[in-house]
Amino acid sequence: MDFDFLGETFVRLLSGIPLTLELAFSSVGLGIVLAVALALMLRARFLPLGWFADAFVFVFRGTPLLVQLFLIYYGLGQFRPELQEMGLWWFFRAPYYCALLALTLNTAAYGAEIVRGGLQSVPAGQIEAARAFGMSGFTLYRRIVAPIALRQALPAYGNEIILMIKATSLASTITIMEVTGLAHKLISETFRSFEVFFAAGAIYLIVNFAVTRLIWLAEHRIAPDLTLAERTAELH
Amino acid sequence: MPAKSFLELMQWGPQGWLDEMFFATGLTLAVAVTGFLFGLAFGTIAAIAKLSRWRPAELAADGYTTVLRGVPDLLVIYLFYFGGSSITTSIGHMFGATGFVGLPGFFVGTLAIGIVSGAYQTEVIRGAFLAVPPGEIDAARAFGMSGLGLLRRIIGPQVLRYGLPGMGNIWQLVLKESALVAVVGLSLTLPELRLGDLVVFYETRFSDLLRQAHVAAGSTRQPFVFYITAVAFYLVLTTGSTWLFRRAEAWATRGMRRV
Q: What fold characterizes domain A22-158?
């Protein structure tokens, strides 16, 4: 193992981190909005909405992300004239937007299940009590349902964020030069796959560790009673 | 030449691509099953190491699961694909071979998938083992069972029972992860296959489902048709195996008291 080369590679790969994080966080951010919408559709009384959300979740969870990415980036190229006419071609021509779209739709499908689980965990008694106090609609969601559901969903969503950071590596297959893209380029230039793997792997482990800690902090912030419970557990 | 219709493209035989897509689905399934079995082997070893209470083994297994679950699968596939052949080439040179010594792509790809899925399977196997009530093991020992008998009669069936749902989830992951081998162009060459008088296929090189869709898309310039077909085939694989795992769970938990 050549340590000079390892260090050099590490520094060169660092320049890919902003793109990796940008893709991961924008797709998770946009994905959460979509996930909440899908989860609400799954509960909607108007059945076709629920069917649509069901089908969406089924397709995006049942197929590989790489296939979804290729379908959007290469597949939609078949409709280039139509997309040009609609003025959408600039979007589907760009690998970055296609990667962002594929990642967003994918995480939205997994997120919808997490949000649904969170919503289901809200005890019916709490909602009844809130209604007895005269709360309804948006206020009920904002004050009672959302805080409880959020606490329940956050740990699972933390896992999803880590999975998405790893999933951004697939964007390298459509020419996005994030950490894995740079690593692949370096491997094919130098044929030193071990050093490059160790450097890139270390970067992902460090990033994932940092993100895990941040999520852990957020969990304790929004669930102070959880911290209290753990504190008392420690006392005993 | 006017574009072919969907049904023309998806014919069985030399005119269409249905047979290619069908066999490619078979290869994808083969890659996933082999990768999963490699993973079962690695996962079992790592789970035993974690349960062993021997510090070095525990640390090694912890390192294995932490790294392999924290790093993108694609990176691991690159490492095996490019790194594997550089190792075999240097080993080959030690024994006097010259030039490039490669490994069969199928072996390298499935091994990479196995290493990754093994890291996930470790936790499932460990959890399932810990779920076996210790009293049952004590009871079996009191009956004079030990070693293999204990493993086969008491521990094995229960680990299977508790571990199946988790294994089902990992199988789904592996099935989807197997698409990544398309990036390095994994393929498998098989000799002619005959069933009686029927020639099922002549000596052919098989690609996995995604790779095959990519090739067909390039050759017909109808990418959407082939990627959406790949989506449909993957959905058949994932839904079919979800159903199978549900059946297996029902079988493994038969006779169990349900609350």
A: MetI-like fold (1.10.3720)
